[in-house]
Amino acid sequence: MLIVRSKIETPPVTERLIARARLTDRILGLMRSHRIVCITATAGAGKTTAAIQALEEQERPVVWITLDSTDRAPGRLLLYLESAFANEAPHLRGLVTNVLAAGLGHEEATGLLVEAVAGEPLVLVLDGLEQLAGAEESISLVRAIARYAPRTLKVLLLSRLDVPLDVGSDVGVDQVATVGESQLAFNTDEAADALAQYGMLDIDPARAVESTGGWVTGILFEAWRAREHVVGTGGEADPLHGYLASQILARLTAEERDFLITTSMLEEVTAARAEKLGEVGAGERLKGLYAQHLPVSWRAGSASMRCHPRFREYLLTLLRRRDGEDLRSLRLVFADLMRAEGNFEECVEQLLLAGALDDAVEPAGRAIIGVIARLDYPVAKKWLRILASAKDSQTSELAVGELMLAIADDDYARGCSVADRLESAGARRQLAATSPTGASIMAWCYWHLGRVDEMKAVLTSAPRSPEVDAASYLLSLSALKPEPAGLTVPRLTGGPLDAVIMRTHYVRGRLREANQQNPSPWAAAVSTPWKAATLRATGHLEQALNLYRSYSPEARSQAWMHGVAGPEIMVDLADEAEARRILAHGRDLIKASGSLVMEWLNLLVEAKLELRVSHNVNAAGEILDRVENSGGRSYAFIGESVDTAWGLLFLMSAPDEGRAVQVLQRAVDSMQEGHRILELPAAAAYLAEAEWRRGHEAESDAASDLALAAAAEQGSNHQLLLALSDFQGVVSRRLDAERGVDSRWHELGRALRKRGVPVDRQARPVISLSEFGSLRILVEGEESRPRLARSATLLAYLATVPGYRATREELLEALFDGRTDESSRAYLRQITHRLREVLPAGTGPSFSADLLAFHIPVIIDSESAQFLSLLSEAARLTGSEMLETLLRALSIVDRGEYLPNVDFPWARQRREYLEDQVVQARLQAGLLAFDQEHYEQAASLAEQVVARDPFKEGAWRLLMHTASALGDNDQITTYFKRCAEALNELEVLPSDSTRLLFERLRR
After folding, report:
1. CA distances from residue 328 to 334, 336, 352 in whole angstroms, order as listed
2. Which of 99, 146, 333, 381 could lock 167 by a disulfide, CB 3.0 to 4.6 Å apart?
3. Three-class SS state of 24
4. Signed CA dihedral, 85, 53, 133, 931: sign only
5. Beta pairing, strands 62-66 & 36-40
6. Distance CA 546, CA 568 (A)
């Protein structure tokens, strides 16, 4: 997209500038104490000039954007934000393009953009915010700026209207300040200075201020003098338009007026550009206008002119009143100028307004990919709708836009229809040869519908490119045997086809690559469904579930998320009801997409549900028959999954293990040959069980070794553990054959034990430690009481140190206040011995030289660790789930004081740390309860906070909010007084935020 540089430069100001120290000091003062300053006032109130004057008096670099109606498209606004920031931070150039291409939305991209300037002291000015009124998506970007802006970034918002941003809810109302009409208005002294500069010494400044209310434009352009100027003067209903008509344009010649009206199409008017619009002698005309008193800004003398926004707005209104054919001709000329300057998007818009649809096809084809890449789908869809009847629109580059929109909407059937239409017109081969993106998306759509031959034909017609490499990589999932030349794994480019690469990585079981982190996090981002799927496949079920639950209904790839990734998470969690619900919802989305591949995958997840959770082999068999009968085996990775499921089914139901061996061996061989290993750990583990049942021990061992190796290559044991949990005998037999106790199989055995699956050999013991209210040791759910109380204290200390090990000197310092005499050393040996007595045999701990450690790996499951873990989990959640998790965490500490009667320094330090975490958690829970309108619960939590920490003003403010919500005005006053009394102990007063809240709630 072509960037108009003048939009991202600080506007020039008139040479006759009136210094306004009062206003400058006011704006700079607010900027120092607030993160966001809103300057809101009527047109001509001097907002822009005031901001420029203030910013010239400070040292921060300025990032300026002058908004107009085109910025109502959020993608366009976002690219202007990037360009403006890049003027001061060049490393940001290209960031937005990469983020949007990777599948993130406009708000996330905005957040990443402003976060990327952290540490750099900058001022961002958005001038003309009223242009975004009613454009919710673009307004959401301004909110995102407020939400994610680092402390080093100050934001100035200039607007004629009160645009509903509600930025205070994102950054805190105390961080947002406003400059309004009254502050911007001239006082008598400033009006006197202004009138003197313009040589109007005969005018009374006080009378001027009284007549205009201090309106800057009114004083500078003498509107107050036109006593006869009332609504309707100049033929205009708008008073300012009337003033501009009667007092500005009326003083010019007809030629000068026509020149201004014609060139109002240009944001910046130069002689060369004006002549392109048909204005002969434009240079001389500009010189003549330079001598006039006009609301315009000049650069380099009379070489370049920019109209005041309100003045240009009026000129454009006059332009639209011109004769229809004259206006159409001018739009065509202007479109040619935009085309010549490379601004194809504006060229298209002008041609559409002129009704020149055939002429708009070519520039629309050149611009539409960029429009879609920045996610401005409504703009692209409007173009395609209007141009549908234009010549060549169905076979041009616009087809690439149609294909991209089809993918964005998960509508693979529509994408195939576009490709088929091109083929019927004899244009598919040409498009594939000239557009790598178009060729790859056509191939992508054909693959989803099972039309591999057409997919290959398209890719054959396309030249080698990263996009074509990505589509060829996807094709490898279908290959029933490897390509002779081997498999090429493409690299990520930050383009739209990266999603294909990441999905293929996942399906091939290349989980490390699917979860890789790029040095540029925004370029490495991939679609959320495949992040969730990879988290599930690597055993991070809690994170995968959180990602699924937080998935926005407005996000892309709904069919993938709900049809495949989501239900598979529920299957692994053994949540049958939720899995069935999501499967049904996803199936409807898949049907709308037309994807045959997703239909097969959805059925395979349902088959897993029947086998692993419901244990219904008959239902599973019927589902697998449906996959096979609909052609699923034509794709290698689908056939491998079908065989793996049949193998599990035969192991669960059939006495003839031969059938299980047959299908599982076929699946394993195909997976190894094609190097598709996502389900290889499970298939090989099932094969090991089947071979052992047939009495083939060597083959069984070989299959189990293969399963272990595949899991190691994936970088996760999750898939293998799922299979072994059904056939734990595979682990037990391998444990019997191992000589040591630290093999990979022992690790798997301990992991299964932790998951609640019994195995026949050693697993890591879990020692539970109750710490709140009382200090108790529990082993396998039963309390174990050592003879010496300090033995439990020893275990509590070990639970706080890495590896549960400590030196003799550290223990003497922790448990004997640093005493190192022989009596203390002997007592340490006694408490260690008494601790070993109550723990499982062979566990320890004992000293080796001067280091105390357990004999085998153990888990000390302490209540404080559980509490902190739940806080970490809550931090990844939102809303009611976050509140629920915080309440679970608080229920642990509500059992009593941490390690009562233990008064060693380390215990006091940890107790203080935990108490601080408890206060923070209670306050956070109270705020969440208030947001969910649980006002009494919120008040109770806040009361507990102030009981522990009476200086926590946030809790007092929450109490005032709850009292207001419950209609108890007297209680608001009580809480404020209690807050003031508490803070008086520190000889401080309540903060402005607390005081202002009290005043507002008491009104």
Report:
1. 10, 13, 10
2. 146
3. helix
4. positive
5. unpaired
6. 14
Omega of the bond leading into 529 within 30 degrees of 0 (cis): no
Q: What's the token pair of residue 759? A: 């195995």
Predicted TM-score of the model (pTM): 0.61
Nearest to 31 by CA among 153, 144, 199: 153
Both tokens of 578, joined, read 């939720």
Residue 972 token pair: 């608001």
H or E element, residue 626: helix 617-629
pLDDT, position 716: 80
User: Which residues does 629 contact at the CB level (< 8 Å), separation at least 6?
Assistant: none
Helix (H) or strand (E) holding 963: helix 953-965
- Which of the 8 DSSP states describes residue 178? E
Residue 511: the pLDDT is 85
CB 153 within 8 A of CB 34: no
Measured CA to CA, the distance from residue 245 to residue 261 in angstroms comes to 12
Directed axis angle between helix 680-693 and helix 657-674, to 10°? 150
| Cβ–Cβ under 8 Å, residues 573 and 597 | no
Alpha-carbon torsion, ordered 866, 868, 873, 876, to 10 deg: 180
Q: Say how far apart CA 877 and CA 871 lie, in whole Å.
A: 10
How deeply is 119 buried, as exposed, middle or buried, from its count of CB atoms within 10 A (0-12, 13-18, 19+)?
Answer: exposed
Sequential DSSP letters for 781-813: TEEE--SSHHHHHHHHHHTTSGGG-EEHHHHHH
Residue 248 dihedral angles phi and psi, to the nearest 5° = -110, -65
Q: Is 825 left (phi over 0), alpha (psi -120 to 50) or beta?
A: alpha
At a CB cut-off of 8 Å and minimum separation 6, what does 578 contact?
570
Query: Helix H segments across 341-424?
Result: 344-354, 357-373, 377-386, 398-408, 412-424
Question: What's residue 230's pLDDT?
Answer: 38
CA 659 to chain centre: 48
How long is the chain? Answer: 1003
Token couple for 106:
């406009």
Query: Residue 832 in contact with residue 839, Cβ under 8 Å?
Result: no
Interstrand relation of 766-770 and 859-862 (parallel, antiparallel or unpaired): parallel
Residue 521 dihedral angles phi and psi, to the nearest 5°:
-60, -30
Alpha helices in 409-565 (DSSP H): 412-424, 428-434, 436-448, 452-461, 466-475, 498-507, 511-514, 521-524, 528-537, 541-549, 558-560
Q: Which mean pLDDT values do the consecutive 10-residue runs of the chain (1003 residues) have? A: 83 73 92 90 80 92 92 91 92 81 77 88 93 88 89 91 64 77 81 75 72 60 40 48 67 90 92 93 90 75 78 88 90 95 93 94 90 84 92 81 87 94 92 92 94 94 91 85 63 75 87 62 52 86 84 79 94 92 95 95 96 93 95 94 95 82 95 92 94 91 93 85 88 74 68 51 68 90 86 93 91 90 89 90 86 86 88 68 88 94 92 93 92 92 93 93 91 93 90 89 81
Q: Which two tokens stand for residue 527?
A: 């679609």
* 3-state secondary structure (DSSP) of residue 295: coil
Q: What is the residue whose two structure tokens read 């500069």?
A: 197
Return the SS3 of 776.
strand
How many CB atoms lie under 10 A from the CB of residue 808? 16
Q: Positive or negative CA dihedral for 300, 301, 305, 311? A: positive
Closest by CA to 92, choosing from 107, 113, 73, 122, is 113
940: its two tokens: 């109770």
pLDDT at 563: 94
Q: Where are the beta strands (DSSP E) in 581-642?
A: none
Q: What H or E segment, with its residue span, contains residue 109?
A: helix 106-115
Pairing of strands 269-270, 859-862: unpaired
Question: How buried is 525 (Cβ within 10 angstroms: 0-12 exposed, 13-18 middle, 19+ buried)?
Answer: buried
* CA–CA gap between residue 127 and residue 157 (Å, rounded): 6
